[in-house]
Amino acid sequence: MLQESLSPVDVLAREVRERTAIAQVCLSRSYGGIEQVVTNDILELSQLGIEVRLVCLMGSPVHLKLVDKPGVKIITVKDFPRKFFDMGFRNILNEVCDDKVQILHFYQPSMMGAILPWVWKKKHLVVFSNRHALATESMRTPWNALMMKRLDGVVTMSETLKKNILATHPLKEDRVNVIHLGLDYLVFDPERVDAKRQRAEWGADESTVVIGCVGRIDPTKGQDIVVKAAAGLLVRSKAIDKVKFVIVGEEPKTGEHQYLAQLQEMVKQFGIGDHVVFAGYKENIPEVMNAFDLFVMPARQEAFSLVVVEAMAMETPILISRGGSSDEVVGNNEFGVLTRPADAFDLQRAIRVFLDNPEMRVKMGKAARAHAMKSFARQDRLQQLLGLYERLLRRRAQKNS
Fold it and tell me: Which whole-number Å values give the CA distances from 298 to 59, 177, 351, in the listed order?
């Protein structure tokens, strides 16, 4: 009777919990979509009673988000290890991956050479990685072929990414697993948030059309394309007065910080400062997405993005660059529209269509939320992740028997 009352997630969690603690490695100083996925996965695994051990950078956003959470043991490093055979990192892996740990999950493929040689002889240990970016060149080198023999699996976020991995990596299909992103739709619920305060902060009233983008301020995200498209619309049509373009995000904490200044100078030169808002980093993403009438992401290089799903969840139609997994996201123009990458004129044209068709915006927004809830639910993601853990544990045990 008890078995019947448990959900599939609870059943899988019990099986994993009784067999292993889970070690995860996420070395990043950013807090974008991938880092948010890591944080949410770890929190939910720990809430299910599964012990999680995380190796992360000291003082990184992931570290600060998880430092006081019960069920999560954090081991920090001050800097990135060398790409190959880092002795100090070997000691950390040996500390983390004791006999209690049978799963090691790392999130940056670039860490392969720093991790796999040191766990090669740990025959009991399931090892797998995530791959969230499209490979632009072949990874079929003798070194990668050798290293990937020790990988039990690779996780990616879409069928497009899976096809890319199979075409560029020395991996068989049964070792590449698609697990979609997932959201909590009690948090991302347009009925539970009030966007008026957020819109007022940007100087937008009820009659203003707010066009927004969210993401790290970086040339690959294409915020300059947004500014150019905004200038084209505003300069060519003086009748478009009640429009705000809102750019949410901050520059990376490391490296040179010039792109934001360049964007601000572009806005000044175009004379559109009254219509463009640089909103900085925002924590209240459900309110932000609900405050937009249209979400745009003309990224030059983006395989799949959590912020797109977040926009859809808040009934906001999406306008994103063609490429990567974008076709999987927008459907047959049901939930949004695709534009040519790095093409401000094409983005401008598409925005104009949305401005002229408010009914289309509303219809697409509602369809987008329905699709997101069906395809990108947190519970579904968690069930798939736990199911993968259980299968890989079973396969590793059979291999060693």
Answer: 31, 27, 12
